Amino acid sequence: MNTLYKRxxxxxxxxxxxxxxxxxxxxxxxxIGYSEFLELLCEDEVNSRxxxxxxxxxxxxxxxxxxxxxDFDFSFQPSINKKQINDAYTCQxxxxxxxxxxxxxxxxxKTHLSIAIGLNAIAKGFKVLxxxxxxxxxxxxxxxxxxxxxxxxxxxxxPDLLILDxxxxxxxxxxxxxxxxxxISKRYEKGSCIITxxxxxxxxxxxxxxxxxxxxILDRIVHHSNIFxxxxxxxxxxxxxxxx
Length: 244
What we know:
single chain, 12 helices, five-stranded parallel sheet
C-alpha cells in the first residue's frame, strides 16, 4: 500500500489518495466490481480537483466578504429590476464579455450585488478579481517606479471578470485617467467588468479631470453593458435606525 500511495502522489492524484481506504472498505462490503470501483475513484479525483480549483479562484479573487443574492432585500430597493439582476446572476454577461454598471448613492447595495454575482461567477468556473478603484490605480502607479507596470497591468487584464468598486467615491489624482483607460481599453470586448459608482455618467469628467479620456472610457464601458440605476435609500442608514 505504501508503494501504491507513493505512485498515486507522484501522479498527483490526491483525491484518490484521500479516499482510497474508505473506497476499499466500501467495495469489499458491497462486492463492487473493478469497473465500478475505478469509476468511484475517478469521481473522487474529479471532485477533489474541482473543489481545489474553486478554493484557488476564490482566494485569488480577493472578495472582501460573502454576500448572496438571497440576502439582498429587493423590497427595500424597488428601483432595481429583480429579473434583470437574476439574468446577470447567471453570468451569461461574462461569457459574452459584457459589463455591468451599478450607479447609486452609498449604501444602496451596489457592492453587495457585485459581490454576489462575483461569487457565483467563481462557482461557475470563471476567474474573478475584486478591487477598489483607488487601490488598483495606486498599485499601477507604484509599479511604474520599478518598471513593473505592464506586469502589474496583467493582474487586471487576466481575470474573466474584474469588479471595480467605488469609482468616484474618492478624488483621483491626475495620472489616474491614463491608467484607468489602459485597463478598460485593453479589456474591451475581451473581458467583463462590474463597476460600482456613486456618480452619474455626466459626472465622470469630474472624476477623471479629463473630459476627453472620460468620454473614451465611457464609450468602451457602456458599449456592451447593462446599467442599473439605484434610486433607493441607504441600507446602512436603515440598519442604524432599526438598532437605535
